[in-house]
Amino acid sequence: MHLKGKTALVTGSTSGIGLGIAKALAVHGANIIINGFGDADAIEAERKALEELNGGKAAYDSADLTKPAAIEAMFARAEADMGGVDILVNNAGTQFVSPIEDFPAEKWDLILALNLSSAFHAIRLAVPGMRKKKWGRIIATASAHSLVASPFKSAYVAAKHGLAGLTKAVALEVADAGITVNCISPGYVWTPLVENQIPDTMKARGLTREQVINDVLLAGQPTKQFVTVEQVAALAAFLTRDEAANITGANLSVDGGWTAA
Ligand code: NAD
């Protein structure tokens, strides 16, 4: 229970990796703010389940992170209801797969806003409170695509490389303030985000579903296994511990060996 009395805001945590990270932090006693879209009853059930895990508070904020004003309002609510944000996990993200010539400009704008700019806004709003408390943890779910590229994912690769750069720059700025800033870079994790890109990848490359899974998604992952949500979440939880106080500015791969090649 090393996080008792601390509050974690995990963006994009109504499903997938974000929900897994929220659970892993709740187990250690953190109050949790989850965020994202989805079915209201399902979200309420997850919120209640988090309160059972942490024995404390869990709140849901429906902020659309593509809108800076909504992020500001979310932080104002976090301050009023939870006493601020001690652990910020910038996890929300989306994907779009298309050749560059056909890449819709509005999809580029959406991916940059959600996968990169929302992290900038959340960090700039979180740092003043963390400086006051002389403690903070900022974690981003980046991606193997923050280190290497794949074709047809220009916006995603650009945003994730940007997120890794943002992590390094801010880590240096707050290094002497008790705040660490890191990103976790998973390979392919079996979540709705991966499931949803299979049809577009089938179309873009002219492949079957099985070919996309085995020859595209797992082709570059030497373990030939999808990473699990729990494996990513366990690393996020470790980064909140005192033992991780000197891990900062790092880009930590959980990718089955993908980026070692
Ligand atoms: P997911 O689709 O399961 O979850 C995405 C979350 O973001 C959901 O909670 C969704 O409601 C939320 N969201 C979407 N648009 C939003 C908006 N405008 N405002 C607020 N919330 C919004 O996806 P996931 O696979 O769990 O991905 C989470 C993160 O992990 C993303 O940043 C993704 O790029 C990254 N990632 C995923 C994989 C993978 O293989 N699944 C690999 C590497 C990195």
UniProtKB/TrEMBL annotation:
Pfam family for this entry, one: adh_short_C2
Gene3D superfamilies named among the record's database cross-references: NAD(P)-binding Rossmann-like Domain (3.40.50.720)
Entry-linked InterPro entries: 3-OHbutyrate_DH, NAD(P)-bd_dom_sf, Sc_DH/Rdtase_CS, SDR, SDR_fam
Highest taxon above the source species: Bacteria
GO molecular function: 3-hydroxybutyrate dehydrogenase activity
Example GO BP: monocarboxylic acid metabolic process
Family (UniProt): Belongs to the short-chain dehydrogenases/reductases (SDR) family.
Protein name: 3-hydroxybutyrate dehydrogenase
